[in-house]
Amino acid sequence: MIARLCAGLLALALASPAAAAEAMSPDGFEAVAEGHVLHFTLRGAPFGAEQYFPGRRSLWRYADGTCATGSWWGEGDRVCFRYDERTDTQCWRFLDRPGGLAAELVEGGAGTGFVLELSRRDETPLACPGPKVGS
What is the pLDDT of residues 37-70, one digit of tens each? Predict the structure, then answer.
């Protein structure tokens, strides 16, 4: 009975999202993202989408339709972004999980628990009208 309970607890621990998630390298992220648009949700609600171009350039479109151009680079297992209209840097750890790709915001080298889920990946350019951004 106790052995069965311990085996069950071990199986649950191994099946947990944290145990099952594997951090994707920046090069692995580039292979998945470049030439595509990744659409993200937060707890099932649309959060935004990002289009990835050669040279590690990107175009982020918020759920409200506003857009920002930026660039990204790798730092260890993190992918860091800086957008033209902002001075701060955001780093994310992209996690390859059984349920799909997720991105966790990283601050000070540690995950924050703020996680976006990849809802879809396509090649349709983002609609970002304006003199400096988009198609």
Answer: 999 999 999 999 999 999 999 999 999 999 999 9
CA distance 126 to 84: 17
pTM of the entire predicted model: 0.80
Residue 82 lies in a domain: yes
Distance CA 50, CA 109 (A): 23
| Structural domain of 107 | 22-122
Residue 14 resides in a domain: no
pLDDT in tens, 106-126: 999 899 999 999 999 999 999
**How many domains does the chain fold into?**
1
Q: Which two tokens stand for residue 38?
A: 């990744």
On whether residue 1 sits in a domain, the answer given is no
CA within 13 Å, CB half, 20: 14
Which tokens sit at 132?
């400096």
**Structural domain includes residue 9:** no
User: Is the confidence at residue 18, as pLDDT, over 50?
Assistant: no
